[in-house]
Design brief:
Elements: H1 2-7, H2 22-42, E1 44-45, H3 49-64, H4 69-74, H5 78-90, H6 95-114, H7 122-133, H8 136-139, H9 147-166, H10 177-194, H11 198-215, H12 228-250, H13 262-268, H14 279-289, H15 296-320, H16 322-330, H17 336-342, E2 343-344, H18 350-383, H19 389-411, H20 420-438
Antiparallel strand pairs: 1-2
Helix pairs in contact: 2-6, 3-5, 6-7, 6-9, 7-20, 9-10, 10-12, 11-12, 11-19, 13-15, 18-19, 18-20, 19-20
Length: about 450
């Protein structure tokens, strides 16, 4: 085991004599991979909705080197751009290639979370790993050309490196801390290029760090020299990377699609639809957009005032509907709609459906437990006078995700798959909060 620790410095803080057998972990991961592969190959998925748009845009970019103005107005270009590169490498436009890539990216994300920090009790770590392996928010989307997987891949790598930076560790044995800052900014920038969520995550993460360092003046990060100035450097470099990536595709400096979230707010304040996607919204908007050839600046100028009017008219309704909206967003079982309604089972035997429903219900239970457990854990971290490194990361990350949940529930378009990364972060941190219940004042770091 000591040799393993030497050969893989990336994981050296997690693989020790206190950890469960690494061979058992490899067997578990192999079983999970086989399960994912069977799930995709046995089930027949039809690419529809946004997933179909991703596929069509990737083919368009592969053929012309450009994307349609309509797509760029609403969506980040990173996912179809990456799909086109994969298709180019394999000289094929078979969706099965991307489906297999979804498996590999999700499995990599799970492995990185498992080795991102230590716990006193090995079984607690496996609670989080097992919960992620059956996570309905991702299992139900794995067969589609889903941007969630490309986003998650870079998002998890960014957080994994961020933890290493906070721990003041020389992650790769030869990587200076300056290059580690660049790696963090670059991976979060790629995640933003795929789905415009990293900006808000890092911004709210900074709020948490500012509270700890300036407002509460807690004793933080005993072994690290990380500062707010260094956080500012990471955030600035992240924005520079994201804007450069957008510029290479769209020709304009931007950190997210031209509508800048206005469309999500416009849909989110549709009181009749309770913030869910409504076909009437897009139908009416197309009548405006098509004569303008989807010019981003012109459309944003039109969309902004009618969004403000809708907000003024419906903000009270949004408050009244907030509980329903929160349930619709945060209960991951609703994501299974994509699996059951848009996927065809390998046989008409009802056992297949019942088995998957049981898995999804179990996943939903673990996610709801994670919200409750992590909420209590966050409250305890507020009260603690001294935080160690991983507690600092957990505090800032949970502050970021919970703030985003509040804003999303009240203001933005409600679709359960939009909360997939929130689900993942909560399951990632779940072992820490569970350990806190078992050992409220751990001396172990």
């Amino acid at each position: 085991m000591k040799n393993l620790k030497f050969k893989f410095p990336l994981f050296r803080t997690s693989i020790s004599s206190q950890s469960p057998s690494f061979i058992i972990f490899l067997l578990f991961i192999t079983f999970v991979f086989a399960t994912y592969y069977c799930l995709i190959t046995l089930w027949n998925y039809t690419q529809i909705s946004d997933f179909k748009n991703y596929y069509e845009e990737s083919i368009l970019f592969l053929e012309t080197g450009k994307m349609s103005p309509q797509f760029l107005f609403f969506q980040a270009p990173g996912h179809p751009f990456l799909i086109s590169k994969i298709f180019n490498i394999f000289d094929s436009i078979n969706p099965a290639i991307i489906q297999f890539l979804n498996i590999c990216q999700y499995l990599t994300a799970i492995i990185l979370t498992h080795f991102s920090f230590k716990t006193q009790f090995s079984w607690i770590k496996y609670v989080g790993t097992f919960s992620l392996s059956i996570c309905v928010s991702y299992l139900s989307l794995m067969g589609f050309l889903a941007a969630e997987f490309n986003f998650l891949f870079f998002f998890v790598i960014g957080n994994f490196l961020l933890i290493r930076y906070l721990q003041n560790e020389n992650t790769f044995g030869i990587l200076p801390r300056t290059l580690l800052i660049l790696a963090i900014a670059f991976t979060f920038g790629l995640a933003q290029f795929v789905r415009p969520l990293s900006f808000y995550y890092l911004l709210f993460f900074g709020f948490g760090l500012f509270y700890l360092k300036v407002i509460s003046k807690k004793t933080l990060i005993h072994s690290s020299k990380a500062t707010l100035m260094q956080y500012g450097l990471v955030f600035s470099l992240f924005l520079f990377v994201a804007m450069n990536l957008y510029r290479n595709i769209s020709g304009k400096w931007a950190y997210q699609p031209p509508q800048n979230g206005i469309w999500s707010i416009y849909v989110g304040f549709n009181a009749k639809a309770k913030g869910s996607y409504n076909a009437e919204d897009i139908t009416q908007f197309k009548k405006i957009a098509e004569p303008l050839h989807w010019n981003g600046e012109a459309l944003r100028a039109i969309l902004k005032p009618i969004t403000i009017e809708r907000v003024k008219a419906n903000w009270q309704a949004n408050i009244r509907q907030s509980l329903q909206r929160a349930i619709r967003l945060l209960v991951p079982y609703f994501t299974s709609y994509w699996f059951f309604a848009k996927g065809i089972p390998p046989s008409k035997n009802p056992i297949w459906i019942l088995w998957m429903k049981a898995v999804f219900l179990l996943s939903t239970f673990t996610v709801l437990i994670s919200y409750l457990s992590n909420g209590i854990y966050l409250f305890k971290l507020f009260r603690k006078k001294h935080l160690n490194t991983i507690e600092t990361f957990a505090f800032c990350s949970l502050i970021s995700t919970f703030l985003y949940i509040l804003i999303h529930v009240f203001c933005l378009e409600i679709q359960p798959r939009y909360a997939a990364h929130l689900v993942f972060i909560n399951l990632w941190i779940l072992p820490l909060s569970l350990e806190n219940f078992i050992q409220p004042n751990p001396k172990f770091q």
